[in-house]
Design brief:
Length: 184
């Protein structure tokens, strides 16, 4: 027993009810596409694959200079999630944007802009299909891509840096979307 009266014994691997890659592929996915706009770090890409696996995200769109599987550094941080999560590559992020818009997705950038909506004030409409765009570690989302988004969501920050690592931003935003859609 811990000081709060509960048992904090760590779960064993066989107790976690993990899906096989085949079971994951056959399962219903969370209706969200993650777009990576010129992400330079393969470790960040791998981390985002791992988060998308955890939340059963529909697809990742890798754009521009973003590395694609199979890739040793992606695999190192994805721990195999690059095999379970579906992904597509687009030479230019604008191609991905056009594809998503043509298929009825509402696209939101996760970026600090003059008129961005704070993530905690954003309300998801369960009848819509969404895509979230995450930008380059230095430049953020390219302006032409921001211009094609329905709007931008900003993660509130209170320290001195006012920036998160892109994989952390993805984790925070995906958790908020997941949390909201599971309440409905």
């Amino acid at each position: 027993m811990n000081k709060h009266g509960g048992n904090n014994q760590k779960s064993k691997m066989d107790e976690l009810n993990r899906k096989s890659v085949g079971e994951f592929k056959e399962s219903k996915k969370f209706p969200l596409v993650v777009v990576l706009d010129n992400i330079r770090s393969s470790h960040n890409i791998g981390s985002i694959f791992r988060t998308c696996d955890a939340f059963m995200i529909e697809t990742i769109y890798l754009c521009g200079i973003s590395a694609t599987p199979p890739h040793k550094e992606i695999h190192k941080s994805a721990l195999g999630a690059e095999e379970s999560v579906d992904w597509k590559y687009f030479e230019a992020t604008m191609q991905a944007m056009e594809h998503l818009q043509a298929n009825g997705y509402e696209i939101w950038g996760v970026e600090q802009t003059q008129n961005s909506c704070s993530l905690e004030h954003f309300t998801i409409d369960a009848s819509k299909r969404y895509a979230l765009v995450f930008g380059n570690e230095v430049r953020g989302i390219e302006q032409e891509v921001v211009d094609r988004c329905r709007g931008c969501l900003e993660i509130p920050q209170f320290g001195t840096k006012h920036s998160f690592n892109v994989s952390v931003s993805a984790g925070i935003a995906l958790w908020e979307f997941f949390k909201q859609l599971h309440k409905l």
